[in-house]
Amino acid sequence: MIALHDCRACVDRATVDGLDDPSAKLKLTVPCQRLGMSSRQTPNDRTPRLIKLLVGLGVFVAVLTGWNYLRPWVVDHIPLPDSVAASDARRCGIWFIGSSSIAKWRTLDRDFPDWQVHRRGIDGARISQIAARALRTNSEVAPAALLFYVGENDIAFGASGIATAQKVARLVGEMRVKWPSAPIFVISMKPSPERWPQRNEQLRYDNAIARLIRVVNNAIFINAGRYLIRNGRPDSTLYADTIHLNTEGYALWSIDIREAVNRSMSLRRIASCQNTAQSS
Question: What pLDDT score does 76 carry?
Fold first, then answer.
């Protein structure tokens, strides 16, 4: 097989030696053309292709970098998961809003059988991410109630309980303006094996948020989680991992939450929604 540099050398030598026989030069040139390079090509002729490659690589890197910067903004400007259906027209829909403890609550329908529940949780989210999406979520049908479980991830990543409570209280106030008549519930921090060392900070959050939302009309703090403790520590048999609950854990966690919701809603609303749930 003829190498490219051999072709160039032979053709150039024929020219230098004065071989002006066209047929002889053609015999030397044709193999070079079959290899994709004419007899007159030089290494510099590959420069445009290299430039195109570098330009293409630069565009790819720019697009990827731009998306990494743009993605958080895009995510923060989309509504919460689980859109509200027209079947909520009787205002029996309760929105559960929060982080992964809400997102992973797949037995929510079973644990709240008398209501049309909406699991509007975001895995791994902190308060700022939840607030951005909650405030941009609209619905023609107003929710019967809003339940928030937020702030656990903020504390896990170093925020103090007091600062976390202040952020949640601000979100509650903004949601009160957005939904003036819907009761707003804030659930206390649930204990978990992995985050047990942060429990004191979680309890500071509970005390602070319970106090801060008293000034917000129809905002209720729910102290839940007592059934998740055994012998003074989180019962590991109630957790799917070291943070999130399993089916049994969610069923026990829901007891105090369900009682608080039913205690705060009007008897007429409860009866109406129970009838709707039974007929569906």
Answer: 44
